[in-house]
Amino acid sequence: MTTPPKTMRWNGGPDGWLTMIDQTLLPTEFKEINCKTVEEVWEAIKMLRVRGAPAIGCAAAYGVIIGMQQKIDASSIRDEFDRRLKEVTEYLATSRPTAVNLFWALDRMQDVSLENPSLSPQEMHQRLLEEAMAIEEEDRAMCAAIGQHGAKLIEKGTSILTHCNAGGLATAGDGTALAVMFAAAAQGKEIQVYADETRPLLQGARLTTWELQQRDIPVTLICDSMAGQVMKEKRIQAVITGADRIAANGDACNKIGTYSVALLAKAHNIPFYVAAPSSTFDLSLATGDEIPIEERQPEEITNGMGKQTAPESTRVYNPAFDVTPAELISAIITEHGIIQPVTTEQVRSQIEKT
């Protein structure tokens, strides 16, 4: 079993830069990009060069470091530094609206500044870099813990369906949903995976299959519309997906199409699991109805992968996410353990104590 390259890495000290895999080019081309301006980080998040809620949070934290570099010189004063920090975090927050890890990471960077008012701009810049690195390292540890907890739910020989990509490419570590599969495989459970292609941007086809092949885990690619038939043929014993935001009652927002998969799993009596770190929970939202859903450009559907597949002027609705109600979720797997049943009380019991 080989280990794929890291999704991102920081180069140097506070005056360094962020290197990331350009995920828009996978699987046919592996290319890393260097982000040396905050605008480049914003563009990478917006255009899905980096994607997946935890990875977006890590990238945004490092984006803060880059955005603050222009405010660090011998004449810098703390008030100017703090004003610039507010500008940078607010700017990065506009890149994507749904993944709560983005806002969680940016709030955490702001909190570090508020907690250290006596530090000079130079000292504060170094302290912010330490916080960004801590966010990345914590995410790596959370992925490992999610994998170990989730593997307890997987029996030997299980065939698992997953939707979109919730692997190492979406995090700083082994992923969320895929971390469970990696851990189960490492335990000798001889799993196999079915991956939905995940239209319209094909993250399942382009990214999930690539990651599973890197780890030598058997994977079969199917169209999104085939999931029901594959379940009916009893080829699937479990479904595991990630999440971009989870409300206080356990409603989970994930890539568009996840809700349909959850309904199919319920109809076929197949357990549907969500794997996500505690940073993905937004307890300020009572239910998933309050989660903002990003709507993306129509060209992603009419001109997918650069080829026109619909007549000119066709009207398009392109929500990037949907929300799976808690009652369809068998369990939520976090770094702290398994939330089951998925209720407001169980969610708060685990997440509020962290």
Automatic annotation (TrEMBL):
Q: Which residues bind substrate?
A: 51-53, 96, 203, 254-255
Pfam families recorded for this chain?
A: IF-2B
Which pathway does the UniProt entry assign to this protein? Amino-acid biosynthesis; L-methionine biosynthesis via salvage pathway; L-methionine from S-methyl-5-thio-alpha-D-ribose 1-phosphate: step 1/6
Q: Which GO terms describe its biological process?
A: L-methionine salvage from methylthioadenosine
The Swiss-Prot or TrEMBL record annotates one GO molecular function as: S-methyl-5-thioribose-1-phosphate isomerase activity
Active-site residues (renumbered)? 244 (proton donor)
Q: Does the keyword Metal-binding apply?
A: no
Task: Quote the EC number.
Answer: 5.3.1.23
**Where do the coiled-coil regions begin and end?**
none
* UniProt keyword list: Amino-acid biosynthesis, Isomerase, Methionine biosynthesis
**Family matches, as Gene3D superfamilies:** translation initiation factor eif-2b, domain 1, Translation initiation factor eif-2b, domain 2
Where in the chain is the site Transition state stabilizer? Answer: 164
Domain of life from the UniProt record: Bacteria
Reactions catalysed according to its record: 5-(methylsulfanyl)-alpha-D-ribose 1-phosphate = 5-(methylsulfanyl)-D-ribulose 1-phosphate
Member of which family?
Belongs to the EIF-2B alpha/beta/delta subunits family. MtnA subfamily.
Reported function: Catalyzes the interconversion of methylthioribose-1-phosphate (MTR-1-P) into methylthioribulose-1-phosphate (MTRu-1-P).
What this protein is called in its record is Methylthioribose-1-phosphate isomerase
